[in-house]
């Protein structure tokens, strides 16, 4: 599941570079629907990079980009909430 999800994130990045938000949304749908317990740190790292591209000026008024940014924010927040805290955080 991890390698396929990472490939989907990479596919979404390619769609974003081509300004194809519909393709990006389709590629990310299964990743963003993944239960928090199955998520790995690399998903959030890569999605954060995608979110930065989606927040760029070329997508400033695109509702689909705004929606994807919100979904990525939720995904990352839920993932972070599931991560065990290290002893340094206490």
Kindly list the characteristics that best describe this protein.
90 residues, 69% helix, mainly alpha, globular
Topology overview:
Blueprint: H1 2-17, H2 21-32, H3 41-54, H4 63-82
What can be said about this structure in brief?
The protein has 4 helices and no strands.
Helix content: 55-70%
Radius of gyration: 13 Å
Shape: globular
Count of individual beta strands: 0
Mean pLDDT equals 89
The major beta sheet can be summarized as: none
In whole angstroms, how far apart are the ends?
A: 32 Å
Structural class estimated from helices and strands:
mainly alpha
Estimate what percentage of residues fall within beta strands: under 5%
**SS element count, helices:** 4
Order of helices and strands: HHHH
User: What ranges have pLDDT less than 50 throughout 5 or more consecutive residues?
Assistant: none
């Amino acid at each position: 599941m991890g390698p396929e999800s990472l490939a989907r994130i990479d596919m979404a990045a390619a769609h974003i570079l081509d300004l194809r938000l519909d393709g990006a949304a389709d590629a990310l749908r299964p990743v963003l629907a993944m239960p928090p317990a199955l998520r790995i740190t690399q998903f959030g790292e890569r999605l954060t990079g995608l979110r930065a591209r989606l927040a760029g000026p070329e997508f400033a008024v695109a509702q689909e980009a705004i929606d994807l940014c919100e979904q990525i924010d939720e995904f990352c927040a839920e993932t972070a909430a599931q991560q065990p805290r290290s002893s340094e955080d206490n």
